[in-house]
């Protein structure tokens, strides 16, 4: 694709501006509510100019060990992402390359792990983790999230591996590359954008999950999402603190996505060098 | 043939086997436990209720239950709206943000933000937006002379309101996957197509779309699976209400498993819904393969 | 000699000091964790648990979780033989479910043993009753609740409004003592933008009333039950122990609640706890009944604009059907001990509960600022504190005649089914109140019918608290 003309560029920018305004409105709401004094939170019409307060951010860190909870979220999300992307890529490659009539059944079985409604397995997971002493540890959440993230990666990466011409792999094997080497040196780099996308999606899923994080953790491994929701108490939803927390937990996520995007671009240039 | 079989076996052992073992080890106990529960009358909160074997009674109850059927229909309605809009919007935005123009990286990152917010919090944020009187959305609508709309407080609008929140959160998913695929497409077919003097739409529909298809299918698969399980947003926004207009399968399972503590019924409903989504996905699979075969 | 004496003295001193430390810090090395929530019954205590450790040596950690899903987490925790949490935060309607499951330690004997120390007689009796199951005390109040009416006193005392009201309804405008008056006043104060309210032209619509009609977290049932009880309805049939909420009183109560809709904000179907109380806190409604844990916010300018705007809020007991006194609808937010904790942990947990709910602690909270809905007579009757928190008077007097809220082991079934069906009725999806109530009752009864009648009758029996007997 080459560079669009000026007229096309104006059109693209205009459309994107409209899309951005619509998509960013809720984000604006989060940011503005996070610095809005509680009594005017639900004023009508909404207050757009108001005395800015930082109390919600202060409360967030003084009323809960919020920095620790963010660290927990990071450990869980990065751990599950790394493990899932690694395992998922292996699985996806096998499913993409194996020529066997039962391979679709295997693929389907893997996918069904993500289809099962999570509510039914909360209690059994609680029981096992309690028995083996993993309750309230990041590892418990890494394991549970990986059971959902591996299928996701398998399915995404399979699409990307399918697009890598097998002729390239055959050429590599003629050059004396082994199976693993071919995969590692030739195929995987060509599917790098897929890796980046999978990583982002795995990260996001682990970062955001609520039900398991609530049930399987206590003070040690509580994640930021549960901590933010804990400002929904028996008598009130403390909107200001929830919005402040929501905004803060966006930041590591965005940084992770940015990092992956750079990786995505590098993957692309590697691909075009071929 | 011998070579292919040997190669298959080696790929299986090196690549697939570890994945199967890992998934099996981490899911077998919970799945067996859930299966065991589904044949039992099991109330976790009331240990004084005998936890007896009840045969297929839980399954019979789920399958003959009006609320379950209602939840199933509501889930499919919601999926139909969200998936179609996410597909069109996601691909459309992906085409825009992959143009070779300045600032596209920033735009793409900004557009990913909705996905970075936990669905439970997305529910709270949209609650803020949706309130007929207190919310921002009706305020903005009133500025252009529209509304007020009873977004989540009327049975006519509530499902659509949930759909909008879900579309807002997950369109970026389709957008990002599509953008990544678009950027990894090889440029040759485009050049050929342009030399032939095809219009932009022709190039898109004849060259881009067919190449995107595998990725789009994967993305829609994953969206379909997750959309079938949608739970958090509704749990916060409407909890199935007003009345039962936004009751979905997951809420039914949640209510049975936790609120009513009828874990056997909840587990049975989980397996029933697993079977339903599996059958649908298999059918989809088959029709896709048939489509490909007829093309080839 | 002097050396030997010094050694002997030092040894004796050391032994004495160790003994004293032992006596003081009797729970050295004990670690307690509370499965808690982030509301004022907990958040005021959480930052100062270090003081308890200094006193007793026991380390306390309070984990705060969101209310949605909290009871699920407690049930899962209680089903485990080896507890992760020794202390459990309890909302009083859960007492029956947790009690029948044997999840909570019986505190009766401990409370009797330490009656003097905890000031048992100082606690509003119904707050103890709220925490009993079959007469046994299973949790200890950390925050008490009553259902009461909050109204815009400045409007009620405006001469024009008073005259207009009298002309229209034929009686004097004052805090409602009957639900019929409540509706009259809700209707009377509902004004459109441009109308006049207390001599001023309104810029936006004003609502006479704000009640919760939302299904989220069972909010609608919380608002329905006090009305239902006022109309003479009970939850259960005293003869069979089955759901009885389909009677004439129950239907009338549901119809009455629906008749409040025109005086409510257009958001009514989505109004849950704080979205509803927010209207009162901003002074945008004339009248709203709700739990006192939110009433306490009205005197705090950081939480409620009414105080800042110079508006005056009046506090009154919840109306009754005919104006004659009726038992107040109460609730409690409490601390309980996990029955599976070790004996040592239980002792330490009890010491913590005593410390965290003591009169000294409650007075400290009251003096530091509002937030806790108090449950001790000495504090609620303190003239200085009454001046500072004008609702104390209502909190105290309303509980002289009070009846606890629903406490059945199947409470969650009731809340969920009635939440759905009442919401459907209010939304106009169900034609009649009777139809809605019948559907909900049938759903509850389908679960209850399998139990022997004597068991069902035991579940609905509000046995007087053993600790309240002499």
Description:
- The complex is a heterotrimer of chains A (about 270), B (about 300) and C (about 475).
- Chain A is mainly α and about 270 residues long.
- Chain A is about 75% helix and about 0% strand.
- Chain A contains 12 helices and no strands.
- Chain A has helices spanning about 5-35, 55-65, 65-95, 105-115, 120-130, 140-165, 165-175, 180-190, 190-210, 210-215, 225-230, 240-274.
- The longest helix of chain A is centred in the C-terminal third of the chain and has 35 residues, at about 240-275.
- Chain A is globular and about 70 Å long.
- The two termini of chain A are about 20 Å apart.
- Helix content of chain B is about 75%, strand content about 0%.
- Chain B has 12 helices and no strands.
- Chain B has one domain (about 70-295): Orthogonal Bundle (MetI-like fold), CATH 1.10.3720.
- With about 300 residues, chain B is an all-alpha fold.
- The two termini of chain B are about 25 Å apart.
- The radius of gyration of chain C is 25 Å and the shape is globular.
- Chain C folds into 2 domains: about 20-145 and about 330-405, D-Maltodextrin-Binding Protein, domain 2 (3-Layer(aba) Sandwich); about 145-330, D-Maltodextrin-Binding Protein, domain 2.
- Chain C has about 475 residues and is an alpha/beta fold.
- Chain C has helices spanning about 1-25, 40-45, 50-55, 70-80, 95-100, 110-115, 115-120, 125-130, 155, 160-170, 180-190, 220-230, 250-260, 275-280, 290-295, 305-310, 345-355, 360-370, 375-380, 385-390, 390-400, 410-425, 435-450, 455-460; strands spanning about 30-35, 60-65, 85-90, 130-135, 135, 140-150, 195, 200, 205-210, 285-290, 315, 330-335, 400-405.
- Chain C has 24 helices and 13 strands.
- In chain C, strand 4 and strand 5 (about 135) form a beta hairpin.
- In chain C, helix 12 (about 220-230) crosses helix 22 (about 410-425) and helix 22 runs antiparallel to helix 23 (about 435-450).
- Chains in contact: A-B, A-C, B-C.
- Chains A and B meet through helix 1, helix 3, helix 4, helix 5 and helix 6 of A and helix 1, helix 3, helix 4, helix 5 and helix 7 of B.
């Amino acid at each position: 694709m080459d560079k669009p003309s000026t007229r096309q560029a104006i059109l693209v920018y205009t459309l994107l501006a409209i899309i951005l305004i619509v998509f960013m409105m809720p984000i604006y709401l989060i940011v503005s509510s996070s610095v809005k004094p509680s009594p005017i939170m639900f004023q009508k019409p909404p207050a757009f100019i108001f005395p800015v307060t930082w109390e919600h951010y202060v409360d967030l860190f003084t009323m809960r060990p919020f920095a620790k909870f963010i660290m927990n979220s990071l450990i869980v999300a990065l751990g599950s992402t790394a493990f899932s992307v690694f395992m998922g890529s292996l699985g996806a490659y096998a499913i993409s390359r194996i020529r066997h009539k039962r391979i679709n059944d295997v693929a389907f079985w893997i996918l069904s792990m993500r289809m099962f409604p999570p509510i039914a397995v909360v209690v059994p997971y609680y029981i096992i983790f309690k028995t083996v002493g993993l309750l309230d540890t990041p590892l418990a959440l890494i394991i549970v999230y990986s059971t959902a993230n591996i299928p996701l990666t398998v399915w995404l990466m399979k699409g990307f591996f399918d697009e890598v011409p097998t002729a390239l792999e055959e050429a590599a094997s003629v050059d004396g590359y082994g199976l693993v080497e071919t995969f590692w040196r030739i195929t995987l780099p060509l599917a790098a954008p897929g890796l980046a996308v999978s990583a982002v999606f795995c990260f996001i899923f682990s970062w955001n999950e609520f039900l398991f994080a609530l049930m399987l953790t206590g003070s040690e491994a509580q994640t930021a999402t549960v901590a933010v929701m804990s400002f929904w108490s028996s008598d009130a939803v403390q909107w200001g603190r929830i919005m402040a927390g929501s905004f803060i937990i966006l930041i590591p996520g965005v940084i992770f996505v940015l990092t992956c995007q750079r990786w995505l671009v590098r993957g692309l240039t590697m691909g075009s060098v071929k | 043939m011998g070579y292919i079989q040997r190669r298959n076996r080696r790929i299986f052992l090196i690549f697939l086997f570890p994945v199967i073992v890992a998934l099996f080890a981490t899911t077998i106990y919970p799945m067996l436990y859930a299966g065991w529960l589904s044949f039992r009358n099991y109330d976790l909160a009331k240990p004084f209720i005998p936890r007896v074997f009840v045969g297929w009674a839980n399954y019979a109850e789920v399958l003959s239950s009006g609320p379950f059927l209602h939840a199933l229909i509501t889930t499919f309605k919601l999926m139909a709206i969200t998936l179609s809009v996410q597909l069109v919007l996601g691909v459309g935005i992906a085409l825009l943000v992959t143009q070779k123009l300045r600032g596209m990286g920033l735009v793409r990152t900004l557009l990913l933000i909705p996905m970075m917010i936990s669905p439970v919090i997305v529910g709270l944020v949209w609650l803020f937006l949706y309130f007929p009187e207190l919310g921002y959305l009706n305020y903005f609508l009133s500025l252009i002379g529209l509304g007020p709309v009873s977004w989540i407080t009327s049975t006519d609008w509530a499902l659509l309101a949930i759909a909008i929140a879900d579309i807002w959160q997950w369109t970026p998913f389709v957008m990002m996957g599509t953008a990544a695929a678009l950027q990894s497409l090889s440029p040759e077919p485009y050049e050929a197509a342009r030399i032939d003097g095809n219009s932009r739409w022709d190039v898109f529909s004849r060259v881009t779309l067919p190449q995107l298809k595998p990725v789009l299918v994967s993305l829609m698969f994953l969206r379909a699976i997750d959309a079938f399980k949608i739970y958090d947003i509704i749990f916060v926004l409407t909890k199935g209400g007003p009345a039962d207009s936004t009751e979905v399968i997951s809420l039914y399972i949640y209510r049975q498993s936790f609120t009513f503590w009828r874990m056997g019924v909840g587990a049975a409903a989980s397996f029933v819904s697993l079977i339903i989504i599996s059958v649908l996905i298999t059918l989809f699979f088959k029709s896709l393969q048939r489509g490909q075969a007829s093309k080839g | 000699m002097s050396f030997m004496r010094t050694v002997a003295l030092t040894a004796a001193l050391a032994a004495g000091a160790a003994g004293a430390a032992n006596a003081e810090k009797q729970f050295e090395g004990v670690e307690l964790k509370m499965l808690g929530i982030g509301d004022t019954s907990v958040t005021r205590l959480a930052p100062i648990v270090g003081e308890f450790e200094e006193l007793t040596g026991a380390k306390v950690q309070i984990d705060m979780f969101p209310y949605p899903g909290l009871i699920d987490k407690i049930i899962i925790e209680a089903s485990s033989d080896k507890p992760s949490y020794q202390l459990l935060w309890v909302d009083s309607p859960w007492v029956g479910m947790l009690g029948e499951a044997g999840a909570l330690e019986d505190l009766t004997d401990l409370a009797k043993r330490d009656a003097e120390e905890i000031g048992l007689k100082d606690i509003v009796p119904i707050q103890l009753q709220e925490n009993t199951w079959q007469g046994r005390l299973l949790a200890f109040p950390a925050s008490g609740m009553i259902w009461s009416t909050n109204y815009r006193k400045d409007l009620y005392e405006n001469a024009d409004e008073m005259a207009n009201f009298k002309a229209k309804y034929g009686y004097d405008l004052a805090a409602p003592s009957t639900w019929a008056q409540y509706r009259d006043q809700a209707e009377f104060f509902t004004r459109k933008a441009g109308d006049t309210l207390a001599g001023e032209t309104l810029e936006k619509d004003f609502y006479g009333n704000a009640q919760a009609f939302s299904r989220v977290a069972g909010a609608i049932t919380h608002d329905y039950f006090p009305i239902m009880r006022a109309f003479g309805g009970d939850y259960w049939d005293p003869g069979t122990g089955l759901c009885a909420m389909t009677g004439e009183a129950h239907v009338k109560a549901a119809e009455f609640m629906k008749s409040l809709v025109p005086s409510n904000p257009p958001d009514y179907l989505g109004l849950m706890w704080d979205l509803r109380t927010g209207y009162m806190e901003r002074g945008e409604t004339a009248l709203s009944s709700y739990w006192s844990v939110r009433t306490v916010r009205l005197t705090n300018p950081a939480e409620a604009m009414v105080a800042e705007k110079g508006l005056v809020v009046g506090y009154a007991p919840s109306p009754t059907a005919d104006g004659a006194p009726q038992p107040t609808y109460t609730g409690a937010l409490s601390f309980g001990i996990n029955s599976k904790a070790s004996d040592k942990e239980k002792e330490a947990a009890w010491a913590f509960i005593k410390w965290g709910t003591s009169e000294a602690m409650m007075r400290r909270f009251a003096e530091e600022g509002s937030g806790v809905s108090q449950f001790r007579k000495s504090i609620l009757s303190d003239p200085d504190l009454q001046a500072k928190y004008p609702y104390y008077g209502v909190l105290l007097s309303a509980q002289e005649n009070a009846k606890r809220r629903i406490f059945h082991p199947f409470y969650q079934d009731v809340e969920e089914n009635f939440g759905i069906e009442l919401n459907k009725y209010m939304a106009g999806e169900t034609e009649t109140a009777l139809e809605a109530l019948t559907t909900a009752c049938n759903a509850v009864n389908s679960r209850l019918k399998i139990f022997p009648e004597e068991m069902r009758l035991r579940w609905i029996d509000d046995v007087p608290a053993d600790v309240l007997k002499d």
